Amino acid sequence: MTRGSAKFLQGSGVQEVPFQFLLTWPSRLVSWLRRRFGLEYERTLSQRDTRGAAERELRTREKRFATLDIKPLSPQARQSSRAQWTKLQEQFVDAPGATVGEADQLVMAVMAERGYPTEDFQQLSNLSVVHGRTLHHYRKARQISGRAARDEASTEDLRQAMVHYRVLFEELLDDTDKDYPQPAAAARDGHPALHGNLRES
């Protein structure tokens, strides 16, 4: 090991890193997580007792996300999904409540085709790794959809739900996942949130 450096463990390998990197580790970690998770970072922070607990949860989400087989839509599937959305917009005037329900189903279908699990309680946390900056739109849409099912949503509420659904829908169609490195690539490029356990030697 060179002078002024330390070693960190990643899997079965050991790699040297400069002490300067260790000194800036906390700020690099926060910056990375804030950039990747957006508003979801603040939301998780508000729900946990400490910043460390919130950041551990977010790093756990990243590791779980790395096990998923996320893939882009084919051109045909993307075109078909856009056509279905256009149809929903056209029918909204005559049946706003039903249309919001169908919008939710369409977004779920696109998620599933992309490779996101849609039937477990970790659905939102899986989405947050790549779509954390827009996930609040999806949460709001689902809340309104729930009220609509109980006949407690106004037409304006339903219109807002469609707007919120479309934000995530467009991200899923546009394959924005490619702008966010998978954990292995992020660690290779020096993103602190994804490195292994550190120890000095």
Explain the layout of strands and helices.
Layout: E1 5-10, E2 13-18, H1 19-23, H2 25-37, H3 39-47, H4 51-65, H5 75-91, H6 96-114, H7 123-131, H8 135-149, H9 155-173, H10 183-188, E3 198-199
Antiparallel strand pairs: 1-2, 1-3
Helix pairs in contact: 2-3, 3-4, 4-7, 5-6, 6-8, 6-9, 8-9
Commentary on this structure:
- This protein is mainly alpha-helical and 201 residues long.
- Helices cover 63% and strands 7% of the residues.
- The chain has ten helices and three strands.
- Strands 2-1-3 form a three-stranded antiparallel beta sheet.
- Helix 4 (51-65) crosses helix 7 (123-131) and helix 5 (75-91) packs antiparallel against helix 6 (96-114).
- The protein is globular.
- The chain starts with a strand and ends with a strand.
Mean pLDDT over the residues: 75
Query: What is the helix fraction of residues, given as a range?
Result: 55-70%
| Beta-strand percent range | 5-15%
The helix-strand sequence is: EEHHHHHHHHHHE
Assembly type of the chains comes to single chain
DSSP summary: helix tally: 10
Structural class: mainly alpha
Q: Quick one: how many beta strands? A: 3
Alpha carbon gap, first and last residue: 8 Å
Q: What order do the strands of the largest sheet run in, or round the barrel if closed? A: 2-1-3
Described by strand count, sense and barrel closure, the largest sheet is: 3 strands, antiparallel
Tell me the Rg in angstroms: 20 Å
